[in-house]
Amino acid sequence: MNKHQHNKMAVDPAILWPAAILILAASVPLVINPVAGKEIVSAMLNWVTGEFGWLYLLSVVGSFFFMCWLAFGPVGKIKLGAAEDKPEFNTVSWIAMLFCAGIGISICNWAFIEPLYFMTTPPLGVQPGTPAAVEWAAMYPMFHWGIVPWALYLMPALPIGYALYVRRVNVLRLSEACRGVLGDRVDGIIGKIIDVTVIFSIVGGVGTSLGLSVPLVSKLFQTMFGFEDSFGLQMFILAAWILMISWSVYNGLNKGIQALSNINAVLALALLGFVLVAGSTVFLLKLWTNSLGLFMDNFFRMNFWTDPIEQGGFPEGWTMFYWAWWIAYAPMMGLFVARISRGRTIRELILHGVTWGSVGCWAFFAIWGGYAIDIDANGTLNLQAILAEEGIPATVVAVLQTLPNSALVLPIFTLLCFVFLATTVDSSAYMLAAICTKDITGYQEPARWNRILWTLLLAVVGIGLLSVGGLQAVQSSTVLVALPMIPVLFIMAVSLLRWAYQDFAAELRPQCIAHHRARVPAVETTEQGEEAVEPLGYRKPVSG
Predict the structure, then answer these.
(1) Which site in 32, 394, 476, 519 is 20 to 30 Å from 166, CA atoms measured?
(2) What is the pLDDT of residue 543?
């Protein structure tokens, strides 16, 4: 496809305009009456988590066990592409893109802060302010940001990647990954509803990230340069962000998004290493080791804990909220990870994605979270008081200022925040543009004007949130959107299995697995030391 044709790629108005109208319909009432809007959405959120919290818990842990079965079963051999296809990106860049798109700036906010909340409101009946509360506070983020949510997060990537690279469809949408169950109904109103819901979910999630991020960076600017807190300063920060994001999405996956993700990974590793060395290194390592033991010891207890008798509100306020947020972001993550994973097997995608995604998050909470716990517990700084009186951005800045060479640490952390958010938003704008494109394969990119358009629309949502203070309402709306996504995830999982057993019936039947393995003379290894199991690659699909 030449450049001229590439820029002519047509959008699908049946998806673009309903999505735009729905986004405006949800946003305008907040602008007109933000107080009433917040109250209504808050009441809806409480109802959903109260009535369906158990469903969020079962859906997420069920996704984890399903992904384990896929990774270690015969379906894991299927390659997303032709048998001879090589991965489009090298493994290090691929992992960096996957992690940065999936986590973004949220971890810069929460790595320092979440353990502080749990010290005063610990789970499972632990008494606040006790040594046990501190241990649980250090561990619980490992659960909320670990292997279970990452398994759910990557689940949509498998059926989407299968549709793109094994079935060779010419659209990049969640509805297409449901075709194995819904059939031709995905071409009608049901498919459009799924795709518009996905767009709303992505925009709500990214708008939330913008709304969280700008105040944090604004506080960093105030501290470094002595600026006054103002709406104008926030608009300047947002404009600088949008310029960086526009450059990234304009240059596409290989030059723009991959480059930002690599920069992001280097900055994050440098800051993590610095805090580990500058802080109480042995304490941080002991605390993390202890957390790992607590996590394994209480794995099933945490995953199924609904607190039905005391009803203290912890599962609803934290775990169920987090699970819903991960589900709401999962469509964007599924689309993006599928797009960058051509040439990799299902087993490789699951094991690499879940392992490195979890390890990356655990590193932030073990080092940054452990450091915050240490300086609060040993009396260096009363972070609990700062958090209660001044909020999250001020607490993050206060923690950073306790580090040696804080005058250098603050600008590096600010740059990390910029790049972290940019990698999330540029991935989202890229995928929104792809969803709205009529005809696109996994080997093509959506038109540049389409990518830039979505970047600007996301900026408008961010400006609206910052101007009316409607962040909490839209954040809650994102969680509400997660509820209808649960059956969609289930349909996609069934769809993937139907396709796999249609296209590779002989290889996947239990009686044929031993015969298939017998034909492979030995298990070879790649240069990276991974098993070079003979993959099942693209073939012309059977009908149905």
Answers:
(1) 519
(2) 42
Quote the DSSP letter at residue 394. Answer: H
Q: Which residues of 404-441 are buried (b: 16+ CB within 10 A; e: fewer)?
A: eeeeebbeebbbbbbbbbbbbbbbbbbbbbbbbbeebe
Mean pLDDT of 79-107: 86
Output the CA–CA distances (angstroms, integers) from residue 502 to 75, 167, 516, in the order listed: 12, 11, 17
Q: Which residues pair with 437 in a beta bridge?
A: 11
Instruction: Please state, in angstroms and rounded to a whole number, the distance separating the CA atoms of residues 478 and 206.
Output: 9
* pLDDT band of 65, cuts 50, 70, 90: very high
- Is residue 276 within 8 A of residue 284, CB to CB? The reply is yes
**Which tokens hold the place of 485?**
């996504």
More confident residue, 51 or 540: 51
For residue 484 the two structure tokens come to 């209808």
SS percent in the chain: helix, strand, coil, step 5: 80, 0, 20
- What is the residue whose two structure tokens read 């987090």? 322
Lookup: tokens for 376: 């609060």
Rounded Cα distance between 96 and 360, Å, is 10
Tell the burial category of 371 from Cβ atoms under 10 Å away from its Cβ (0-12, 13-18, 19+). Answer: buried
- Helix H segments across 436-523? 448-468, 471-503, 505-508, 510-519
